[in-house]
Amino acid sequence: MKVFDHLFDDFFNQIIIDELQNASFNFASDPPPEGKSDSGFIHMSLHDGKVDSFISSKLNVYGEIITKKIFTLMPELNEFYPRRFCWNYYSKSSSGTYHQDANTSNNITVVYYLNTCDGGTYIEDKFVQSESGRAVVFDSRTNHCGIGPTEYDKRYMLNIILTKENQ
């Protein structure tokens, strides 16, 4: 697991949050079915970047920018492509269950936090707090669990699954 702070500033993140507040969210379920999140509400903007079958959305542009920034920090991931952008909204009543985003070695998960709050993500037994501009990168086979805020009203984040074609 790698943690990167201050990927983007609060101004950039607020632009995305403003866009998310106008997006259509769906209820998520636990345990999450394939292609879903563990949060209370989800908005899928990119389903599979490789085959170009995605939901057209301004949010895809923001997801691509965040992905490209990760690639500059971790050039070893440059052979990967974004398979899924899943924008998550957690309220005080939202909580997740431990799950894996994928079960093969050719997938990497990126969790990008859009706002600072007391929620976050348990990655195995380590809690990573939601801090605006923080990104966490880990093997998608790693058990993790989203945690909603308790003192704050909202938590926004992006879950990216990066995939590399099997060699």
Proper CATH architecture? Sandwich
Mean pLDDT reading: 86
Return the string of H and E elements: EHEEHEEEEEEE
- Overall geometry comes to globular
Say what the CATH topology is: Jelly Rolls
Beta strand count: 10
Spatial extent as radius of gyration:
14 Å
Count, helices: 2
Query: How is the biggest beta sheet arranged?
Result: 7 strands, antiparallel
Strand fraction equals 25-35%
The CATH homologous superfamily = q2cbj1_9rhob like domain
User: At the first level of CATH, what is the class?
Assistant: Mainly Beta
Number of domains: 1
* Helical/strand content category: alpha+beta
Measured as a percent range, the helix fraction is 10-25%
User: Which regions are unreliable across 5 or more consecutive residues at pLDDT < 50?
Assistant: none
Distance between the termini: 23 Å
Strand order within the widest beta sheet = 1-8-5-10-4-3-2
Structural key phrases:
single chain; 167 residues; alpha+beta; Jelly Rolls; seven-stranded antiparallel beta sheet; three-stranded antiparallel beta sheet; 2 helices; 16% helix; globular
Describe this structure in words.
There is one protein chain. This protein has one domain: Jelly Rolls. Helix content is 16%, strand content 32%. It contains 2 helices and 10 strands; from the N terminus they run E-H-E-E-H-E-E-E-E-E-E-E. The strands form 2 sheets. Strands 1-8-5-10-4-3-2 form a 7-stranded antiparallel beta sheet, with helices on one face. Strand 6 (120-123) and strand 7 form a beta hairpin.
